[in-house]
Structures are given as C-alpha cells and as structure tokens.
C-alpha cells in the first residue's frame, strides 16, 4: 500500500479536488486498493513526508520534503496533465 499525500495551501479545497482526480486515474489504471490518499496543507506536508511514499501538491515544493514529489498544478490547469498523469502511474507501477 502506497501512501500518497495531496497538499495545497490550506489542505481543504484544491487538494481535495486533485485527490479525487488522482483516485480516478489510479483506479482506471488497475491500481485500485494499492494506495491511500490523505489531504493536508503544504505546511503539514513536510512533516508528513517522512511517512509518505509520494507527495502531490498544488503549490511550489517546499524545502524539507523527504519523499518523491509531483506537481499537482497540471491537474488544476490541464496544461501538462497527460505528462503528470504518466508520472503518477509510473511511480505507482515502479
């Protein structure tokens, strides 16, 4: 089971929206049941990164992240979304 943290400025709005998109993406690629998604603020993400397998954030990557990081901005804007989706799938299948 891989632990994925979805972070945004407050941990409420955009992280929740992107979490739903990531869940749908992973489920539709046969990865249902292989991950757990938690949302939080970007300020909390640094501490949570110690126990996470991946952080996806809709903000700039802060210093101190201790696990792989993928930008979640493409899931909001649509620009570069296919590449970001592929990064997430590749990470999960590695």
UniProtKB/TrEMBL annotation:
<dbReference type="GO" id="GO:0009401">
    <property type="term" value="P:phosphoenolpyruvate-dependent sugar phosphotransferase system"/>
</dbReference>
<dbReference type="GO" id="GO:0008982">
    <property type="term" value="F:protein-N(PI)-phosphohistidine-sugar phosphotransferase activity"/>
</dbReference>
<dbReference type="Pfam" id="PF02302">
    <property type="entry name" value="PTS_IIB"/>
</dbReference>
<dbReference type="InterPro" id="IPR013011">
    <property type="entry name" value="PTS_EIIB_2"/>
</dbReference>
<dbReference type="InterPro" id="IPR036095">
    <property type="entry name" value="PTS_EIIB-like_sf"/>
</dbReference>
<keyword id="KW-0808">Transferase</keyword>
<dbReference type="InterPro" id="IPR003501">
    <property type="entry name" value="PTS_EIIB_2/3"/>
</dbReference>
<protein>
    <submittedName>
        <fullName>PTS system, Lactose/Cellobiose specific IIB subunit</fullName>
    </submittedName>
</protein>
<feature type="domain" description="PTS EIIB type-2">
    <location>
        <begin position="2"/>
        <end position="94"/>
    </location>
</feature>
């Amino acid at each position: 089971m891989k632990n994925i943290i979805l972070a945004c400025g407050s941990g409420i709005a955009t992280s929740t929206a992107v979490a739903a998109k990531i869940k749908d993406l992973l489920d539709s690629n046969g990865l249902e049941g292989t991950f757990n998604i938690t949302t939080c603020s970007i300020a909390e993400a640094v501490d949570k990164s110690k126990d996470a397998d991946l952080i996806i954030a809709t903000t700039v990557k802060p210093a101190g992240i201790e696990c792989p990081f993928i930008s979640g901005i493409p899931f909001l804007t649509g620009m570069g979304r296919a590449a970001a989706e592929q990064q997430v799938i590749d990470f999960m299948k590695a």
